[in-house]
Amino acid sequence: MEFFKKIKQITHLMKQIDFNELGEISKKIDLPKIMKSVGELDDNQLKGLMKMLTEKVKKGQHNLPPIDGDFYDFDLKLTQDQRAIQLKVRNFMETEVQPIANYYWNKAEFPMEIIPKLAALNICGVTYEGYGCPNLPFMMEGIIAEELARVDVSISTFFGVHSGLAMGSIYLCGSEEQKQEWLPKMQKMEAIGAFGLTEPNVGSGVAGGMETTCKKVGDEWILNGQKKWIGNATFADVIIIWARDIDDNQAKGFLLRKGNPGYTAEKIENKMALRTVQNALLTITDCKIPESDRLQKANSFKDTAKVLRMTRAGVAWQALGCARGAYESALKYTKKREQFGKPIAKFQLIQNHLVEMLANLTAMKAMVYRLSELQDQGLLTDEHASLAKVFCSMRTRDVVSRAREVMGGNGILLEYDVARFVADAEAIYSYEGTKEINTLIVGRAITGYSAFV
């Protein structure tokens, strides 16, 4: 009886099969291999497979366009090698940082375990020549800043301080001996750098009112003062300290080594932005630094400004990355979130917000792309960088605000990422020169009159 029962089942099964269709399928896939794999599935796995194969796709959810903030395809302008670097950084951020970003941001701690993995990307000192650095165009520095900030602005800031401000100070203002000592190991992230310019009482006006002082006594310099908001300073191996020389009233730069007597680094607590970045208040008291650790080519604030000019373009790219991360997170959310029986992405008011965000993103991308082209051509000026920083940081504020808007109450939850982008955008808006200061730099360039007090 069992034998005839099986014959009956097989006969019934063969009636259900379209052998012409089966023949066409067999041309595309290895049917015996598929049958063997299906036969090895347990009951739960088989139920899941059948559900996936038979469940109807909701109306309006099929063939949706990809989520991509590069609407005008600027990335097509990159070479194949440059595109490979971009995708390598993107993959790292999405696989290594994305899963832990909100945890460390909420804890206000830094994920030290990612430093060796970040170092393996070989992107530190990306535009510098020699010392193990890649010597790539400034365009790639911008692309990297965008990719880092697209997932986590804190990690982008950490990287910018180390690779841009700290390494850049040594690269532009250091002696050959100083470059040979520090840049190779900083490029490999075997030593981490920080940059100490801003002070508790002096931010934008530091060029004319620096309170941290230095005085040469014999073969040493004695430094006194405080620095505030110094990223990476709680664990950095070297901190670039800018101080005003009492004797000639000019800015000087120094390499403050970790463990050097005479300074303390107190972590700044209770921040609402860039919580993963370890900012510190540095207190420097009769700190002795040998002449060999003075940046030999930093003799006035003009030399400091060279470093800031080089890195300010990167901050504009970083603003773009922050905005792009918020936009893409919001767009993804609107396609999944349903109200009144359909995805909210189908509503006119939601689409209006999304298009406004995309327009801002596209305008920002066009500006920073041209900015980096100017930098690669040696034509970049302070006012070029300042205009991009002003515009991009303002537009980023608008983008993250709209991203939070379309997500409703969920927009304030870390699990959806946008809340973190909203907060971090406020830090970008302020550092590397406020809107007002950068505006006056551009205003001076276009009118010929300085409105600085």
From TrEMBL:
Domain Acyl-CoA oxidase/dehydrogenase middle, first and last residues per copy: 194-287
Acyl-CoA dehydrogenase/oxidase C-terminal domain: residues covered: 305-446
Keywords: FAD, Flavoprotein, Oxidoreductase
Domain Acyl-CoA dehydrogenase/oxidase N-terminal stretches: 79-190
Requisite cofactors: FAD
GO biological process: fatty acid beta-oxidation
Pfam families: Acyl-CoA_dh_1 (PF00441), Acyl-CoA_dh_M (PF02770), Acyl-CoA_dh_N (PF02771)
PROSITE patterns the UniProt entry points to: ACYL_COA_DH_2
GO molecular function: acyl-CoA dehydrogenase activity; flavin adenine dinucleotide binding
Coiled coil: none
Domain of life (superkingdom): Bacteria
Assigned protein family: Belongs to the acyl-CoA dehydrogenase family.
Protein's name according to its UniProt entry: Acyl-CoA dehydrogenase
Organism: Bizionia saleffrena
